[in-house]
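Researcher: Next sequence.
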Amino acid sequence: MSNTIKNRHRALLKAETNLYPHGRVGQLSICLVSPSRYRTGMSSLGFQAVYALLADSTDIRCERAFLPEREELEEYRRSGTPLLSLESSTPLADFDLIAFSTSFEPDYLNIPLLFTLARIPLYSSERTQSDPLIIAGGAAFFINPEPVADFIDAICIGEGEDVIPAMITTLLSSVDNGRRGLLQALSVIPGVYVPAFYHPVYNSGTLAGYDAEEGAPLPVVRAPVCLAQHEPSSSQILTENTEFGDMFLVEVSRGCPRGCRFCSSGFIYGAFRQQPFDNVVALIDRGLAHRGKVGLVGAAVSDYAEIGRLSRYIVEKGAKVSVSSLRVDRIDAGMLDALIASGHKTISLAPEGGSQRMRDVIRKNLTEAQILGACEMLIDRDILNLKLYFIIGLPGETDADLDEMVRLIETIRERVIERGRANKRLGEITVSVNPFIPKPFTPFQWCGMEPLPSLERKVKLLESRLRRLSNVKLKVESLRESYLQALLSRGDRRLTPLIIAMAEGANLKKAAKSCGIDTDWYVQRTITADEILPWSVVGTAEMTLLRREYERALAGGEG
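Model: Next structure:
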């Protein structure tokens, strides 16, 4: 084994603090793999939560592996070393099971690379009894697992607290049933999808449905867990070598009660659920022994009923509190004061729709008065650095909607400048613009993404209008990366060769050409109401509701 790789692993482990140390001896060996690099992968609370669920069993030896850093990747290739686990430097191919945890669709591109490094056959159909079983889960797989379904033996599309213990029990009791027998036993667990048992059928280029083998449920139904019955997800391993290295992270809620028509968080997790206050506090007390800052995690953190009380508790303990962004109409004074006491100089707000018409279309349920009121609340507390999130390319958007966005930004800027002059301190507004990406299991899943030339024109329009405004900075998400994300979000199994080609180094255009794939067909077209959706194999119960919301949006947005 290369000393460079060995020393890298030793350095990472030495810097870690494991809050819940687990044994390393077990009947079943599992390597939990992140297709992101260590700094990002270990920052994911989802990855850490899955690690805790796996490592908590005395019958399992759980280790970790990550996408190698660029220099480390070259060392693997140069030395011919197979991909190794972090804890014991064991080749991944020697584990009984490999579990992928994937939160973002672009990470799908790294899965074939990791298989190649690990010397494991890419396709599940090519693996034998001597190869590890490959299981995957995470938000990306909740949304649409189909583009990489042929790589994975079993996919967890249910929430881990209930599904993972059931899978562990099955794995431990079915080890002598052979590979197919084990997959059959896993397939009957609610929330587990075994792609090999489902065969897509195409008709004139579009998906016509799935043929499910006998005993395989169609669709595979996910069931939300009762959070009160489980300890909240929290940081398991602390290290400075991550994006949130100075924080102890704890989940306060799951899902979102808002139901914004472009966002999957309000739909894929079922009903909005909140962690009991006492359960969260107990974990925070434990985490404060190691970190002086607590990061509160959830798709709708400011909707947590006890957010003000919880934030004050953390500050009164002499610690700092952090949240990702605030809901404009749910800015709790206690939480805001706690954030200021924690040293926050910038607060993020997400109007998302630039005009009232667009906010109605996406069902944001925010008025301009509420947005300005929230900004005033921040400015009155001398928070003069604001980050505003907007989406462009929403269904039905026109240049008039962009004009309204600019006017809103100008109005907020005037108020920041007025307060800044009084305090003799300048503030800055960062306008973060993201293109609309149609996501499965949302009312806008049938919509196409706006063509890149049209989005590029809108970006230039915003640049020209905002460039003249001092103290305003425009940041735009990469349009091409967003296009790729839309492709992977809406794709089916026919994208598999494209993903392999990109993992081997081809860019999207070359990969699509070599594979004969029209990516615009996946990304930009409007899907008809009677068409079978690739992701319907892992849930169709809410499609009627989603279609109704889609039609309301096209009719003007209200409702």
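Model: The two ends are 61 Å apart (CA to CA). The first helix runs from residue 3 to 14.
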